Amino acid sequence: MTPPRLARWLVRLAAGEDRTFVLSDLEEELARQAGGRGDRAARRWYWRQTVTSLVPLALLRVRTVPRAARVPLLTADDWCVGPTFDAVLGIVPAAGRAFGEGDFKPGSGHVVMLTHRFGQRVFGGDPAAIGQSLRLDDRPFEIVGVLPDVDAVAQRAREYGVSCDRA
Amino acid sequence: MPKGRYMGEFELYVMAALANLGDYAYGMTVRREIEARAGRHVAIGAVYATLNRLEEKGLVRFTLRDPLPVPGGRARKHARLTPAGHRALEHSTRMLARMLPIDSAGGRR
Question: Among A7, A28, B50, B104, which is most exposed with the fewest C-beta within 10 angstroms?
């Protein structure tokens, strides 16, 4: 069952960065409601959710825009490095592993190392983050390691210049 | 708990739902859990707004999950309480229980 187009558009407009997840959740529940109570009741439910969600979603969007502006969105290009990244900078991962030659072979999956700060902010420092999937540039990257908590890593990266191979 | 870190009623509901749901906690399951237990209408937008606020406070962390490899599989943003979140929930519920006027038989005075 498809959601009411206008309601979906309104949610999409209001929800900001979380729009994919909010719409996905709503569609999942819409299908569930349609199966139990019928299409008409499910559409009414969707509209009620839309109307009552617009204000909190819009407030959330307004509140999070300045934060997003201060911290540019992470893209894969920002973080592309070569296979000797950790060796050149003398980095020992705080958790998981560093990049290996196998990660750079054609056909190998995308992998990513988190900075200590990102790992704390998004995963609460939980080592269970290793092996999980993270979407960057709308592509899934497997988290293989976490960088140590030292400013020197960033400083060294700036000094040496981290090359980016987009191939 | 430092001043300014007290949680609102709905924040407590959301955190309790996260504790109950464990690995199955994401926006819609949290909404369902609160509706089922509290018997009130809950807007999905309010759940997401609250989850983001709790994440900013360091009480919740998100994990992005890829869509299931089935037709109609959807991406989800799962939420979990951090250790600080568990402590805050336990602290708040304990303080609330201490503030309520309970007699020795367990009923309200």
Answer: B104
Which of A2, A18, A45 to mutate to probe the B interface, most B CBs <10 Å? A18
Q: Which helix or strand (DSSP H or E) is residue B80 part of?
A: strand B76-81
Q: Which of B28, B52, B62 sits opposite A64 (nearest CB)?
A: B52
Average pLDDT for chain A: 74
For residue B71, pLDDT over 50 is answered with yes
Cα–Cα distance for residue pair A68/A71, rounded to 1 Å: 5
pLDDT digit string, tens, across residues A16-29: 778 888 998 999 89
In this complex, is the C-beta atom of A126 within 8 Å of any C-beta atom belonging to chain B?
yes
> Which residues in chain B are closer than 8 Å to A26, comparing Cβ atoms?
28, 44
DSSP output for chain A? -PPPHHHHHHHHHHHGGGHHHHHHHHHHHHHHHHHHH-HHHHHHHHHHHHHHHHHHHHHHHHHHHHHHHHSPPP-GGGG---TTHHHHHT---SEE----GGGGSTTPPPEEEE-HHHHHHHHTT-GGGTT-EEEETTEEEEEEEE--S-HHHHHHHHHH-------
On the question of pLDDT at B67 being above 80, the answer is no
Q: Report residue A45's pLDDT band, with 50, 70 and 90 as the boundaries.
A: very high
Identify the bridge partners of residue A111 per DSSP, sorted by sequence position: A142
Q: Are A52 and B41 in contact (CB under 8 A)?
A: yes
- Write the ipTM: 0.79
pLDDT at B96: 85
- Whole-prediction pTM value? 0.59
